[in-house]
Write a structure and sequence with these properties.
With about 210 residues, the chain is an all-alpha fold. It has nine helices and no strands. Helices cover about 75% and strands about 0% of the residues.
Length: about 210
């Protein structure tokens, strides 16, 4: 096998392991990752596994990176197809709800699980999780600010507050859909953000009525 072929096979093996790791961590947290369990789940020998990661912390850091990339590909990228402004802001919320509704991850949301796990544990993993979540909030604030600049949200809107509310309503679905309201939580979260945006939009016709 050529060097290129070996590298490609190694990359595929690494990606398969990270996909499994993120799925497991969405249920059990990053501390729940067992190197042996992941090796078995992906059909990777332990020696092959340790060729990718020198220790558990590096695996955890790479899992956060993989989860952040997955979020961009499956939530952010589809929403960017919507016109800039209030429609794109709502499209981001809908894409997030769709991600949860389709059961992409067995635990619903990787970041919901690991933020609770690492919020009071200083270190590299906590810092990377915090950065990923901060980037998401900053992105939401930027989209809200663009909607204001385009005249699609009223002037004076507190974009940081609005971004916080949208994020919180999306996050609530992770728990409520499993423990309390079931599918109704998706309906409530969608309707709450839609009504909030329509109330702030000078031209509500840009958004669905319900």
């Amino acid at each position: 096998m050529t060097n290129d072929g070996r590298r490609l096979r190694g990359l595929r093996s690494r990606e398969a392991i990270l996909e499994q790791a993120v799925g497991l961590a969405s249920v059990e947290g990053l501390d729940g990752l067992s190197l042996g369990r992941l090796a078995t789940a992906t059909g990777t020998s332990k020696s092959g596994f340790f060729a990718h990661w020198r220790d558990k912390e590096q695996l955890q850091l790479d899992a956060v990176e993989w989860a952040a990339r997955q979020w961009v590909e499956q939530v952010v990228a589809p929403a960017l197809q919507a016109p800039a402004g209030v429609r794109r802001l709502f499209a981001l919320h809908e894409a997030r709800l769709r991600f949860y509704d389709e059961g992409v991850l067995p635990g619903g949301c990787f970041f919901f699980t690991v933020q609770a796990e690492f919020h009071d544990r200083p270190g590299a993993v906590r810092d990377r999780v915090a950065r990923a979540m901060g980037e998401w909030q900053e992105f939401l604030r930027g989209q809200a600010a663009e909607a204001v600049a385009l005249g699609e949200l009223t002037e004076g809107v507190d974009v940081a507050q609005l971004a916080y509310e949208i994020d919180a309503l999306g996050e609530m679905v992770v728990v409520h859909s499993r423990l309390h309201d079931g599918p109704a939580s998706l309906v409530h979260a969608r309707r709450a953000v839609l009504q909030r945006l329509r109330a702030l939009c000078p031209d509500p016709a840009l958004l669905p009525e319900n």
